[in-house]
């Protein structure tokens, strides 16, 4: 595993977004991710296919900032943005630490092979993926 020495993310802000649909449990109020990704997420590579133009292509895409990360409850514990906002260091498997975009898959943290693309799911059918 290649280690990078330039840890720019420790002092710089990161911009990004969460790429899974989620639902709020009516009884508990907790947010639960469902197995449907944004239609622009390549579910094989787990990378956004329109990253540079994501806000123009999908106005609902949430551009993250330090303030927003603290307010958005749906970000998973493993999310790098949430980790940094919570004062935690990035895990060994994060590509910014390992220098390898595949370590997130090798560690089983990514959604690779675990979700269906939103391209193939009608919005009215999202509830069926809440298992």
- Percent of residues in beta strands: 5-15%
Runs in which pLDDT lies below 50 for 5 or more consecutive residues are: 1-5, 8-15
| Number of helices, counting only DSSP H or I runs of 4 residues or more | 5
Order of helices and strands: EEEEHHHHHE
Number of domains: 1
Broad structural category: alpha+beta
C-alpha Rg (nearest Å): 15 Å
Residue share in helices? 10-25%
Distance between the termini: 35 Å
Q: Please state the average pLDDT score.
A: 79
**Number of beta-strand segments:** 5
| Strand order across the largest sheet | 1-2-5
Largest sheet features? 3 strands, mixed
Overall morphology = globular
Give keywords:
3-stranded mixed β-sheet, 5 helices, globular, 14% strand, 131 residues, disordered N terminus, alpha+beta, 18% helix, two-stranded antiparallel sheet
Question: How would you describe this structure to a colleague?
Answer:
The protein is built from five helices and five strands. The chain is an alpha+beta fold. The strands form two sheets. A three-stranded mixed beta sheet has the order 1-2-5, with no helix packed on it. A hairpin with a 6-residue loop joins β1 and β2. The chain is globular.
């Amino acid at each position: 595993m290649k280690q990078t020495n330039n840890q720019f993310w420790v002092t710089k802000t990161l911009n990004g977004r969460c790429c899974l649909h989620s639902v709020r449990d009516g009884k508990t109020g907790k947010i639960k991710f469902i197995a449907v990704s944004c239609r622009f997420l390549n579910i094989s590579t787990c990378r956004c296919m329109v990253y540079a133009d994501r806000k123009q292509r999908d106005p609902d895409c949430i551009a993250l900032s330090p303030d927003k990360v603290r307010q958005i409850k749906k970000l998973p514990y493993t999310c790098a943005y949430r980790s940094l906002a919570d004062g935690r260091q990035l895990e060994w498997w994060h590509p910014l630490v390992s220098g390898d975009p595949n370590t997130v898959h090798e560690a089983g943290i990514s959604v690779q092979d675990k979700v269906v693309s939103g391209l193939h799911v009608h919005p009215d059918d999202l509830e069926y993926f809440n298992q």
